[in-house]
Amino acid sequence: MESLAVLKIFHVAATVVLLGSVAVVIYRAWRSWKGGDRLPFASTLQRPWVYAWLVMALSLVSFPVTGWWLVHRVGWPLGQTWILTAAVLYVIGGGVWLLLINRVNRLRFATGLNEGVIAAKRRNVLIIAAVAVVVLLSIIGLMVTKPA
Q: What is the 3-state secondary structure (H, E, C) of 5-60?
């Protein structure tokens, strides 16, 4: 099989795995919230849900390698606007993802706080998670459309 086809398969598979992991974490948080858990995002870091976060991290680490290799094999210049925009969004998204992990851990270990503080922390986590999802979908949109 040609190496370009294999690279595309790996890159798309990593994207599908990442989206699946995101969906699992969102679903788990939603189910916990509907079940009355006062810290639903904190419960998403418990086993086996921590594996979804680890799979996300593995997918995120693989993207620069397979993406650069794809660009190199196809022959696109790295200076194209959509590639640079996706790279900048990737760096921003990685930072937001790390911030999200930090905030979820803080929420997980938040004990002895009143309900108002917990609600504010949960709202902050929701906002950060929404930003991370928007950045991820923007990158995917750029990769799929490849605007000139």
A: HHHHHHHHHHHHHHHHHHHHHHHHHHHHHHCCCCCHHHHCCCCCHHHHHHHHHHHH
